[in-house]
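Can anyone check this?
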Amino acid sequence: MMKLDAKKINKNLFEGYKWPTRGPESDRNNTPYGCLSLVDQIAQILSEKILTGEIKGGSRLNEEQLKVEFGISRTPLREAFRILDKKGLVEVLPRKGVFVKSISKKDIQENFPVRANLEGLAAVLAYPHLKEQDVKHMEDALEAMKQASQKRDFYEYTLNHKDFHEIFISACKNDVLITALYNLRMHTLWHRYTFQYYQQDFKESIRLHRKILNLFASANTSLQELEHVVRYHIEIAMEPFLSAMDKLESTTDEPQTLFT
């Protein structure tokens, strides 16, 4: 039986996906697990399993099995299911159970344009608030992305890519925008893991992120150009994602990796 203990939850890619809208980057990356309620712990563990593909789309979440696995009662588990439902990760069907949603082309076609425009707006709003330390953190994240790309390390690339974007999104100081982008970016991560990516034109991805960083670092940046570059680097990834989905549906060949 797996007894839940906040201290025993592994720190990983998705632990950082609780974006406080205040406080330095170091605070955001070191959120203590002890502050999470039992329901939040359950929801976070299940979210991670879904987002990383450990629990596949279309799978039914077995309530009785999970109660035994976590050593909990039905009430907190069902509350956790409601959280997953609100995140758009599962679908609750009356008299049938709770099922993990499967990603569709429609999901991708709806996600990317909205995320591209909102993240472009976040960049514009963040520009006057970014401090020298923030830019340094973004530089560190980009360098780590470059090193991970050379090793073809999907996990490390994605972890540092997330940090790169998180820094300026948090700096936009708009809680509504931060929350909206939290949900959109969470689903983008789900897309990646579902397709098991590992091949990508890393050079182009690094180039675009370097351009974004240079615009943030400059004192004379055109906000119109900044918005365009951030929006563009997300928009151009949509068609490759759709192509990857087509390949996944039609062949068992190894799929490609996509980073935005």
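Reply from J.R.: I decoded it. The chain has two domains: 6-100, 105-250.
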